[in-house]
Structures are given as C-alpha cells and as structure tokens.
Amino acid sequence: MTSLFDPLRLGALSVPNRIFMAPLTRCRAGEEHVANALMAEYYAQRAGAGLLIAEATMAMEGNSAFWREPGIYGPAQVAGWKLVTDAVHAAGGRIFLQVWHGGRACHPDLNGDRQPVSASALAIRNDTVHTPRGKQPYVVPRVLDDAEIPGIVAGFRSAFDNARAAGFDGVEVHGANGYLIDQFLRDGANQRSGPYGGPRENRARLLFEVLDAAAAVWGADRVGLRISPLNSYNDMIDSDPVGLATWLAQRLNDFKLAYLHLMRGDFFGKQQGDVLTPVRANFRGVLVGNMGYTPDEAQAAVAAGKLDAVAFGSGFLANPDLPARIKAGAPLNAPDPKTFYTPGAAGYTDYPAWQG
Questions:
Q1: Is 350 within a domain?
Q2: What is the CA radius of gyration of the chain?
Q3: Residue range of the domain that includes 200
Q4: Pairing of strands 309-312, 287-290
Q5: CATH code of the domain in which 184 resides
Q6: Percent of the chain scored above 70 by pLDDT?
Q7: Cβ-count burial of 1 within 10 angstroms (0-12 exposed, 13-18 middle, 19+ buried)?
Q8: 228: closest CA among 286, 276, 277?
Q9: What is the C-alpha to C-alpha distance for residues 21 and 286, in angstroms, rounded to an integer?
C-alpha cells in the first residue's frame, strides 16, 4: 500500500515523500517585490516537504495583486529568490516557483495607475483588494488584444528563465483561482471571440502557449500546472467545470508535465462537483490534490491511488515540520489568520517545531 512517506518520481526529480507544500501568498517581499532573508528562513524551515511550491510570483513588473508579493522579473528579484533556493537546498529541500500574472485581479493603486488586463472587460464583483489607500473595489480591466498576447507569453518565458537563474528546481504555472490564465480558460470570465475565445481549445490557447514556453526553458519534466475548475474565488465560474476538467486532463497528457496540481473544490461552496475522479481517469501523469485534506484523508487518497501526492496549505503555514508531525501522529499548531499577510516574522517564522 502506497504511503505519504514513500518516495515519488516527479518528472526529472525524485522526491522523498508525497507531502507537498502548496503555494501560499504571504506578502513578505516588501514594496519592491524582492524575496529576502526572512523568506529564506521561512521556506528552509519547511524543507522537509517532498516539494515546496513557492508562492504566486509576478512574471512581469506592474502586475501586482497583493501589494507586497514577490516578483521574478529583474536582477533584484532573481538575487532575492537565490537567497531562498540556496537556503532550501542547504536544508535538503526541493523548491518550484509558481509563476503568475494577476490579470483583472490587479489594481491601479498597486501598479502606478496602470489599468489591469484580462480576457474580457469584466471586473471582479462583490469584493475588494488591499491597497496603500485601504480596501478598494476592483476595476474593469482592459481587454488584451490578440496581438498583445505573444508579449504576455514572452513575459512568462523571461520569468521562467529568471527562475532558472535563481536556482529553482522547476516551475509551476499558475492556471488557477481567477488569475489571468484562468480568466482566459473559464467561460464566465472569457467572453471574447477569435483565437483566444469561444470553444475550450481557444480558451486554453494561452495556457498551452505558456506551458510550451516553460517546457522550452526547463524541459516539460520540470514544469507543473495548478488548476481550479470549481473554485469561485475572484468571481470565477464556468458553465461546465467538470467537462472542462475532464477535457483538460486529456489534453495535458500531450505536455508530459512533471505534475498536475488540482484544487478539488470551491473556497465558497458555490460550485459543486467531482473533478478529481475524471481527472484521475484521464490524466496519465502525476496528480497532486489540494484543498482541505486532513493527513488521514490524504493517506487514504494516496493509498487508494486517487492521488499521487497531496499539497497542504495552512497546515504547512503553521507547522514548519508538518511531515514529521504527520508521521508521529503529533498535534498540529493552529494557523493565525490575522498574520497571514502582515509584515515581519510574527505568524510567519515563529511557529514552533514539534518537541517530540
């Protein structure tokens, strides 16, 4: 019976266990979007994960959606992330960088008054974004012209090159949670026509072009992808999320990725359905599950062959030694939501390790 503690072949990597750390935005990179020594300490503390997936990181300058999130678009950002990867590798860990474009989730107050861009001129509704001027409503994005999209893909490719220079072991393309790639992918946010709108094949074109760019830099066996077909976060919906997930699982076989990282549900419970079963049935590569798994449920899913690994979010946030705690059946620290996005070490690097 397969265990969470069995090694796993992950494309070009062999990882020692199947307990992954999910990408978690923590807003500790400061106004210049540069990773730093505090972030290096945070990730190195969690190097016992089979794989660390670093937080959503701006592929291109001027596309901030979280105020103090990191970037990977210039020499300062590369040098900052090199502190992190060196610390993780010194601690025996492996780390991928999640590369991201916020699309309509960006805000002018975070980006020098620049209007955000998206697949269609549809703003995120019924939500606000934290900015230096306080919480602000999202604005209507500018529609990307078809002729601009190769520039977006080129920006991602430059980011993938920079991630390689920063010493990462691979990259995860962020195709989830209502950010730019997801805005093109799901029909609730993509109402355009032409080569990037309409049928699924067209709506997925940007995703596939970005995956091709990642593979050109890294080799597909060092590229992962995260998707969230059901998640309504950032005002997202699709008319047929299970059908989309099934179709994607089939098409993604062509890319020979290191893994597919599937968010199984909806943060807000608005969209229901089983995407895990059809994706497992149709995707022939390594499948990583995410969203609300307990250690026992994760073990059962891996043992039953439903998943190959599980990515834990808040569990890793509050428990730097999560794999050791799971193995020992030790109690878990509870995360403090008040410090998820605040500056400094509090609620970041000060969660205690288990004293077993």
A1: no
A2: 19
A3: 8-339
A4: parallel
A5: 3.20.20.70
A6: 100
A7: exposed
A8: 276
A9: 16
DSSP class of residue 187 equals: T
Sign of CA dihedral 177, 180, 184, 188: positive
pLDDT level of residue 356 (50, 70, 90 thresholds): confident
**Is 226:257 a contact under the CB 8 Å cutoff?**
no
Instruction: Tell which residue, 192, 197, 209, has the closest CA to residue 141.
Output: 192
- Domain annotation covers residue 155: yes
Other Cβ atoms closer than 10 A to 191: 13
Per the DSSP assignment, residues forming a β-bridge with 10 are 13
Catalytic residues: 179
Q: Could you give the 3-state DSSP secondary structure of residue 162?
A: helix
CB 264 within 8 Å of CB 230: yes
What tokens were used for 52?
């660390």
Tens-digit pLDDT profile for residues 136-153: 999 999 999 999 999 999
On whether residue 346 sits in a domain, the answer given is: no
Quick one: residue 199, left, alpha or beta (phi over 0 = left, psi -120 to 50 = alpha)? beta
187, HSE (Cβ side, Cα atoms, 13 Å) = 14
Q: What is the pTM of this model?
A: 0.98
Interval 153-172: pLDDT, tens: 999 999 999 999 999 999 99
The answer to whether position 356 is within a domain reads no
Are 226 and 176 contacting, i.e. CB atoms less than 8 angstroms apart? Answer: yes
How many structural domains compose the chain? 1
Length of the chain measured in residues: 356
Summarize pLDDT for 241-276 with one digit per residue, the tens.
999 999 999 999 999 999 999 999 999 999 999 999
Sign of the alpha-carbon torsion through 214, 99, 139, 126: positive
Alpha helix ranges (H) inside 34-179: 37-45, 75-90, 149-165
45, 320 contact by CB (below 8 A):
yes
In the chain, the amino acid numbered 177 is N
